[in-house]
Amino acid sequence: MIVKILRSDGNVKKTFNYEITNIEKRTTILEVLDYIKNYLDTSLSYRSQCRASICGTCAVKVNGKPVLACKTKALDLAENNTLQIEPVDNMAIIKDLVVDQDEYLNKLKKAKAWLEPKDNFEKVYPEDLSLFEKETDCILCGICYSVCPAFQNDKNFGGPINFVKIFRFWKDKNDALGDIRIEIAKENNITSCIHCKYCTFSCPKEIPVESDIMQIEFFGKQKGIIQSQDNFGFNFGF
Ligand code: FES
Known about the structure:
Blueprint: E1 2-8, E2 13-19, H1 29-40, E3 59-62, E4 65-68, H2 74-77, E5 82-86, E6 93-95, E7 98-99, H3 102-110, H4 126-129, H5 143-147, H6 160-170, H7 180-187, H8 198-202, H9 209-222
Parallel strand pairs: 1-5
Antiparallel strand pairs: 1-2, 3-4, 3-5, 6-7
Helix pairs in contact: 6-7, 6-9, 7-9
The structure holds FE2/S2 (inorganic) cluster (FES).
């Protein structure tokens, strides 16, 4: 198999080709990168830690599709016996496949992406957990952020990842902020979402990201927290 990797020093980009003959059915993209790094080219840079779809560090684009390298089988995405591996979009490249995640991690601070605990914790039952259980799967991999076209119109848009976190804590009855979370969503420009659903289709944890955004916006507009004249996805040709 030919593995083409778009490499960069942060300025100049160049595609490097590597030939690998020992790819098996179970071989992951991360194992392909490890093989190249260990046996063909030690200068290749990429991120990984857990190798188990938990840490969210290994996102890359393979044949145009953003994926977790440790979760994705090479043969599942190969086309004409070729893999084209590139860094994910919407983030500055530091080197090769390593991108700068600071932008979206800093935006998470603005979104207060943590539990603000109530003074008296209430017992959580399965039906309470079911309201936000899927959103607790978010591993902050940034894939939803990388595919989001809304940044083209609004650089200050919080991004899908922010609104997954806002939704998760808004639905948690032990979070003290309650509907203040909706105001936070407004401050993070939730109405710049164009509802293309790329985030939902790309999420490796199958979180219904766009639906979460829709629910926050709908509730905010019903309560008059978000004004209905704000954009609702119709300024982008959708
Ligand atoms: S290495 Fe941790 S998610 Fe892939």
